[in-house]
Design a protein that fits this description.
- Strand 7 (85-88) and strand 8 form a beta hairpin.
- Strands 1, 2, 3, 4, 5 and 6 form a 6-stranded antiparallel β-sheet that branches. Strands 7-8-9 form a 3-stranded antiparallel β-sheet, with no helix packed on it.
- The protein contains no helices and 9 strands.
- The chain is an all-beta fold.
- The chain has one domain (6-109).
Amino acid sequence: MITGKMVRVRLRRDFFEQRLWVFVGKVVEFSEHWLMIEGKGLTVLRRALLDVDIEPELRIVLIPRDNIAIIRVLPDDFDMENIRTVNKGHKLCLVVDNGPDATIAEFGEV
């Protein structure tokens, strides 16, 4: 279904103190119980303004489907080597060329 697509996966948070973690990359495999994705993790940092730490290298991760809050399909030509974020009002967004920006976090969530 989404195998081979570029996606932004936002993981569930079970408690407020847990860091907000998002993974951006290409779906390698998708099953009933997990998602295998090759990409980069983004960790939202708590500062005066929302900021994000982007992993420098691509890696493959297996994410249990129960841990996924949201999957957003991105354009196939999304540039993994040039990931950009921007603060838009009360939101931190992933800049998506050829499509609407993808929300990573809102101020109230971090």
